[in-house]
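User: Fold this, then the next.

Assistant: Folding the first:
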Amino acid sequence: MYKTLIIDDITTDAKSLKRKILATCPLLDLMGVFVNIEDAQQAILEFKPDLIFINPIIAKKSSLSILEIKQQIAFETIFTAGSEKYSINAIKYQAIDYLVKPYTSKAVQLAGKNALQKLTENQVSRQAELIARSSHNDRIVAIEKIAIPTLDGFVFICISEIVRCEANGAYTMIYTSRKEKVLASKNIKEYEDILPKNTFFRIHNSHIVNLNRIHKYNKGRGGTVIMEDGSHIEVASRRRSYFLELFQ
């Protein structure tokens, strides 16, 4: 769930937007509607939202000063206005989307979908950075869990419990030592980049394995690994030498 605020002093518009978000964007957790700049700024500092729907004009004054808080707290924005007049401001502040009143359910749903994609990408990027830093700096505590984005939300999995990842088109099936299967809404290249290089190896275009979860290696052209979960996975011939070097 992503913490979300609505900032708009036109009550009817704010209520309409709230209803449509609740109906079409279940992963957006609405923390409240704020009708003046001071309360909105305080709410941002208190809730540290992931996403803000903001009317660029509140009480006939620009509300864009609120967005300067982004220097302290990172969040994404969606502009809401009565016309396209402020679209240049939306570009300047790198807004995800721009909703023109009156809102339609379809437009709100699409904006929410775009926001979820961006927020998920941000989270994956932060995870990759933290994992990379923890792998190269002993003073930083290693990341133990990873948030796996699914069609319904997120599943949190201990990195050490991941046995293997298998490509499934634009998705990735993740298998764990607890006999769980999680279908992640990201492709396998994303996980090749995120997972620690000293523990995980992409032995085939469609497979990444946890080196600590390999039970046996059988020789062959590329060879085959047998994982702890009993799965047999072919090692791509062009990756065989790199793979075997890891154990020498």
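Now the next one, as you asked:
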Amino acid sequence: MRAGIAREKQATCVACITPEVAEEPINRGVAGGSAAREWQRRHERREQDVRARYGKLGGVVLALSDDPHSTSAWAYGAKGERALGHLLDPLRDEGMAVLHDRRIPGSRANIDHLVISPAPVFVIDAKNYKGRVERRVRGGWFSREDCLYVGGRTKRRSSLA
């Protein structure tokens, strides 16, 4: 099991230090929005490339073929993020702030969902996996590691730390 160092960080509400910002409504984001935009960008790019390559036959080629997995995975992921977003949104009625698809400044990465409650803040990275979720202990006496499995397949990068 990997050990990590917990660091406390403080955040300040912009509306608390800048009262004029308080009147502006909060953009809560759209669950799966950036993944859907990435799918759309890749899908349109493929369509343009196929039409440029095959000319008048491009429409036939597009009708008889599907997007590659690297493109369709973005649409599949967006669908999963939207489904999770719909499950998280009712938490707003419990007094929690639920934000979706937040950009990380200075990065191309994003946070899929952010739930801010009176005590902790939850950062949620959505994955659209199918199957039973299991935690398995791997290793022996001297090197033990908790691992995450979904549908019998290891999610090594997502191992529990």
